Amino acid sequence: MDETMRLIQMAHEGDKAARDRLVTENFGLIWSIVRRFTGRGYEPEDLFQIGSIGLMKAIDKFDLSYEVKFSTYAVPMITGEIKRFLRDDGIIKVSRSIKEMGLKVKNVREELVYRFGREPTVEEIAGEIGASKEEVAASIEAGAEVESLYRSVNKNDENSLLLIDKIEEESSAQEELLNRMVLRELLTDLSDKDREIIIRRYYYNETQSQIADKLGISQVQVSRLEKKILKQMREKL
C-alpha cells in the first residue's frame, strides 16, 4: 500500500492529521483545476475553497478497493464541486461580504461535521471562524437554497446520502465516469500488444480474424490471447 492509500485509510479511521495532510499535499491539484475556471467573475481563492470541499469529499468517499489512483478519482469530484457552485451561485443575490462569509461557513461546517460526526450548531460554527451568530445565520439563510442540496437525507445517520447524491442523472454520469477511469487504468497496465487486441476487439468491434490478419498471427492465437487478457483484467477488478 502506497503512502496516499495509507493516509486515506487512516483518515477513514478518524485520523484528522492524516486527512489534513492529504488535503495539504493536494493543494497543487486543486489549483490546477481552479485555473480552468478563471475569468468567470470569481476570485481564485474563493474557487479554491470550493475545490477544497470537493477534495475532502473525495477523501471521505474514496473506496480503497478501487483500482484507480486517488488523484484520478479526486479530479471529477473537485471539478464537480466547483461547477455546482458556479451553477447555483447567484440564485440569491447577496453582498460580497455575506458571500465570503458563506464560503467560510460552508468550509468550516464540512470540517465540524467530520470532527463531531453530527451537524454543528450555529454557535459552534461562529466560534470556529470568529464571527457572530447573527453573521453566520445571515450567511446560512442567504445560501439556503444552494445549501439544501447538501443536506443529509437522514440527519440521524452520519453516513446518509446527501440530497445531491439522489439526483439520478448526475449519479449515473459519475458512475459511468468512474467505470471509464477504472478501465483506463486496467488498459494502462497491459502490454502494447495486449492493449491493441482489447481496443480493436471491444472499441473497434473487429473480429478475431480481422485482428489476426493485422497482427500477423492466427485466429486461434488471438482467441487464446483474448481469454488470457480478460482473465487478467477480471482478477485485477
From TrEMBL:
GO molecular function, one term: DNA binding
Pfam families, alphabetized: Sigma70_r2, Sigma70_r3, Sigma70_r4
Keywords recorded for this protein, A-Z: DNA-binding, Sigma factor, Sporulation, Transcription, Transcription regulation
UniProt cross-references to PROSITE patterns, sorted A to Z: HTH_CROC1, SIGMA70_1, SIGMA70_2
InterPro entries listed in its UniProt record: Cro/C1-type_HTH, RNA_pol_sigma-70_dom, RNA_pol_sigma-B/F/G, RNA_pol_sigma-F, RNA_pol_sigma70, RNA_pol_sigma70_r2, RNA_pol_sigma70_r3, RNA_pol_sigma70_r4
SUPFAM superfamilies for the chain: Sigma2 domain of RNA polymerase sigma factors, Sigma3 and sigma4 domains of RNA polymerase sigma factors
Taxonomy, superkingdom: Bacteria
GO BP annotations listed: DNA-templated transcription initiation; sporulation resulting in formation of a cellular spore
Domain HTH cro/C1-type residue range list: 207-227
Similarity comment: family membership: Belongs to the sigma-70 factor family.
Role according to the record: Sigma factors are initiation factors that promote the attachment of RNA polymerase to specific initiation sites and are then released.
Name the record gives this protein: RNA polymerase sigma factor
Organism whose genome encodes this protein: Lacrimispora amygdalina
